[in-house]
Amino acid sequence: MANDQQRLLYLFELPQEDIQAPRGGGSVLFKLESDEAPPSVATRVGVSPSVNLPVPERKDVTLQDLGTATSVPKGSAFSFFIASHRKAARDLCDFFMKTSGAEDLMQVAARVHGKVNETLFVYAISFVILRKKELRSVRLPTMVEVFPSRFVPQEALSKAQLQINRMDPNQTEPVIIEHGPEFSGTHLKPEHRISYWREDYGINVHHWHWHLIYPPAMGFDRDRKGELFYYMHQQVIARYDIERLCLGLPRVEKLDNWRIPIEDGYFPKMTVSISGRNWGSRQDNTLPKDLRRRELGEFVDITDMEIWRSRLLDAIHQGFMIDRNGDKVPLRDDVTSGKRGIDILSEALEADAELSVNFPYYGDLHNRGHDILAFSHDPDNAHKEEMGVVGDLGTSLRDPVFFRLHKLVDDLFQEYKVTQPPYTEEELFLPGVRIEWAGVVRGNEADVLLTGWNTREFEASRGLDFSGKPVILRLTHLDNKPFDYHIQINNDLREPKEVTVRIYLAPKFGDREKEMDFMEQRILWAEMDKFTVLLKPGKNHVTRSSKESSITNLEELTFKDLENSGPGNTSEQDAFNFCGCGWPQHMLLPRGRPEGMVFQLFFMLTDYAQDKVSNPGGVRRCANGVSFCGMQDAKYPDARPMGFPFDRRPAPLLQGLPVNTTADYARLGNAFMHDITIKFLGEKLN
Ligand code: CUO
């Protein structure tokens, strides 16, 4: 008898093949009762299935019930940035949400499979699994295995197929596809030097997963959803800029002039699916143009983008937005509704058409920005070309232009942030608690951290059919050696004190190889960890492993992991799907340099009594990705603004002295700064 995990897991396998094709290496078969199994697929593998998933006829599943879900053509790209595609997703998710329990969802989804776009299908079943309480024990397999063609060039996949065509039919050894660290281009173009980072599977999977949890216009809101859109993307930009500094590249420039060509092109070399449709390529120096994709209902003028940006800037500088009734909506935190100024701004900027205070007026700057860029090579469909990768949630970080667009978005958020009053000394200081020393230790060595390459294997043959043969993807990625933070803290109070420990990392020197002032370094600080600790009176030695980071997700679950995971209903697994979101652990540290690069760690303790967020019904703790992804069925577990204390201008005076650099914050006893070195070994880490 199949368990919930098995019932739903195989809906993710071979998304482009007939639902009755054997899955699980031939051991699993969806059997659509009353339909004839297509013999070509059912008999090809020649293994008799051990798990049969019977799917009775469902008269309640008709094409009409799917609304606009069938409007996205099969085999083509699906983009959450396109309004008509979002509507299709909403319709399909609403339909799947009406099911009750894993068996019902499996039957309905199996009947819908093959009738809608493949990416849309996977998006919708993932969305529903994440939101249905009764499906909390079901985990999602990694996108790398569901859609391998989003992670490696088509050439590599075709080579594997050719190899299979030529090999002895009795061979059972898998074919191995090696990929990286040389990715989409040569070093003739400086931007290619950082392609190992942009094309990393983990950060692209993270981005897909994050947007699955926080989608716009899907008929729901979440605590601090807008603020998290700002913060998660701000941190991605900060980390990208840090990586660029490691490589001697200048920091990314915002795309604020849509009337000049975009210098850097991007050639993904990948296909959307087995349909053979290629992701669109953008030549160097492509001029963005008004978008006229009639088949998608997408019409945007460059002028619209300029007007929307200008209106958003007006709102930021005036301190209020104007709603559809013409009333002012102040851009400040509202205690009654729980909405913060940053949420209001973010929902108008992202934009969430349902949550924006005035969608027709403030427009759709960020989503449409993705669209204009994704179609800049064929804005009017004259060439019938597919969108570029920047239009897809699971591939957009591959393209350098993603970061230029999101730098523009972040620039608007920062414009708002600098209008906010700096934190007062009272908000920053925690009397009675002092950090005596803090740093990092790896093995026997203090303050030197190491990065290098590593590999991770995935089964490409779970997502694509290679004539029923196993094919393994061996992906090279940046990695780091685990380390521990050590923090010595004196609690001078007479009683125990619970504190939040906040840890950030930034390069010590900017692109001019000079120490940065507070404002320059402010937006480069990358959050590394945030946790609570109970300090006893007197001396405390706190240690924390880098693997416990509040931003990271430790593992990508493969089909194999999930097949071996048992019934999948233990309490730790309960919160997993949500927590499965997070920055990849292997990308926790920036690369550094072969000769070593100096970074600064910033530690700060704040009063947990003030940071605490009450969550009625108790909090579902999970170790993964909380800072970037929040928590399931719970409020974001930190009352302070995200990015605190670096999200605002510095306090002009601290303890009576001016603040010029971050080191001036470390004058407070509850903060501490420490230099460390990150060395890139350039070889495979053991
Ligand atoms: Cu995540 Cu633009 O929001 O890609």
From TrEMBL:
InterPro entries: Di-copper_centre_dom_sf, Hemocyanin/hexamerin, Hemocyanin/hexamerin_mid_dom, Hemocyanin_C, Hemocyanin_C_sf, Hemocyanin_N, Hemocyanin_N_sf, Ig_E-set
Cellular compartment(s): Secreted
GO molecular function: metal ion binding; oxidoreductase activity
Gene3D superfamilies: Di-copper center containing domain from catechol oxidase, Hemocyanin, C-terminal domain, Hemocyanin, N-terminal domain
Keywords assigned: Copper, Disulfide bond, Metal-binding, Secreted
Positions in coiled-coil regions: none
Residue span(s) of domain Tyrosinase copper-binding: 399-410
Signal peptide: none
SUPFAM superfamilies: Di-copper centre-containing domain, E set domains, Hemocyanin, N-terminal domain
GO cellular component terms, semicolon-separated: extracellular region
Record PANTHER family: LARVAL STORAGE PROTEIN/PHENOLOXIDASE (PTHR11511), PHENOLOXIDASE 2-RELATED (PTHR11511:SF4)
Name this protein carries in UniProt: Prophenoloxidase
